[in-house]
Amino acid sequence: MAEIKRDAKRYEKINNLLFLADIVLTVTVLLCFFMTPLSLNLMKIAEKNIPESYGRVVHFISLNAVYLIAFAVINWVIFLPLHYYGSYHIEHKYALSNLNRFNWFKDEAKKLVIGVLMKLILMEALYLLLWKQPGSWWIWTAVIWIIFSVIMSKVYPSLILPLFYKLKPIENESLEKRIKGFIEKEGGRLLGVYEWILSEKTKKANAAFAGMGNTKKVILGDTLLKNYSEDEIETIVAHEFGHHRFRHIYKFLYAGAFFYIVSFALINMIFKGLVDIRYHGYIEFYNIATFPLIALLIYVIQLVAMPTFNALSRFFERQSDRFALEKTGNPDAFISGMTKLAEQNLANKEPNRIIEFLLYSHPAISKRIKVAEEYKKNISPGRQNI
Predict the structure, then answer these.
(1) How far apart are alpha carbons 239 and 254 in whole angstroms?
(2) Backbone angles phi, psi at 264, to 5 degrees
(3) Surface-to-core class of residue 238, CB atoms within 10 Å of its CB (0-12 exposed, 13-18 middle, 19+ buried)
(4) 291-328 and 56-84 helices cross at what angle (nearest 10)?
């Protein structure tokens, strides 16, 4: 136990340092592209590959696409060593990964392609609006990004997740019946219960109540099914269902919508303040060469907002923990499940309070266990499903 605790603290420290390195590198790369002629030169190279016979709008969209793809690939190559060290080397060092180098690289390539496609949709819309609606671009951009977030929340379990992990109907009929019974008892509807094949890539355990509307699925990692009792799994599923019961996905979308509106309004104000500053001969912010500036502003605003969103997430997690305890009446299974998750995922049970405030989307494991222990003291023995 002492060795696991020590490793968990070291693992967290390394990941925090890697996160800091990622921030420094991101800001440095974006500043280098924007403050030097690099971005403008990349735009000119992209422009040479766009036939002049295209109409003005098609030429604009095509130029932006070529630039954004080239920028994404360059950025991916720059960050690849850092990502390799963090998501491959360190994961293997602490015996948390089952991936070989080829499959790790294949997953990184998939992320690049998916990221480029998403960026093309969002940034093409942003730049078209900057060009065509210079006064109200920020409002319409926020609306489009909000709609995109809703769509992604709905399609992620069925379209994106299977690109990285295999999903199959759960084989444990007893557990499936128990999960469906619990959710139906609480007024929920399920598309199905699925086994999430995590073991091909990681030794970590995870579970989720994924999707929106009629696409909702319970997905349970095979690493979870293998090592946890049905009581423990039920408390974990109850926690995940708690997010649905309290409509946390929708509340996050509302918070995200507010964030987008405020963010783009702020960026619009900054643009107005910079309108007299010439950028390597250009003042039009709809020129794709300004992308590093827009990316930097969005990134910094996200960093500033991250502690607030993490605090909101921790509040939601505490709500779901309480829901799981009340609906299962089994604090012992909750405590043992949390303890196993901490050990299996090498989570630091007692992180520094400042680190928890800034970076943790979930309350510290020690606090979650303490809540369950307090709950156990306050319920009658007859309600516990031991």
Answers:
(1) 21
(2) -75, -30
(3) buried
(4) 60
Give the separation between CA 36 and CA 240, rounded to whole angstroms: 48
Element (H, E) at 244: helix 230-245
As given in the structure block, the two tokens for residue 341 are: 């998750």
pTM for the model stands at: 0.90
Q: Is the pLDDT of residue 382 over 60?
A: no
**In the chain, what percentage of residues exceed pLDDT 90?**
77
Lowest-pLDDT choice from 1-5, 15-19, 85-89, 287-291: 1-5
Least Cα distance to 330 among 219, 171, 184, 178 occurs for 178
**pLDDT value for 49:** 82
Using only C-alpha atoms, the chain has a radius of gyration, in whole angstroms, of: 24
Strand partners for 218: 193, 209
Helix pair angle (248-273, 137-155), 10° resolution: 150
Q: Which two tokens stand for residue 106?
A: 């294949």
How many Å apart are CA 26 and CA 49, to the nearest integer? Answer: 27
If residue 218 lies in a helix (H) or strand (E), which one and from where to where?
strand 217-221
Residues 172 and 116: their CA atoms lie apart, in Å, by: 39
Structural tokens at position 327: 């609906």
Q: What is the mean pLDDT of residues 278-287?
A: 68
Residue 262's Cβ-count burial label (10 Å; 0-12, 13-18, 19+) is middle
- Bridge pairing between strands 167-169 and 217-221: unpaired
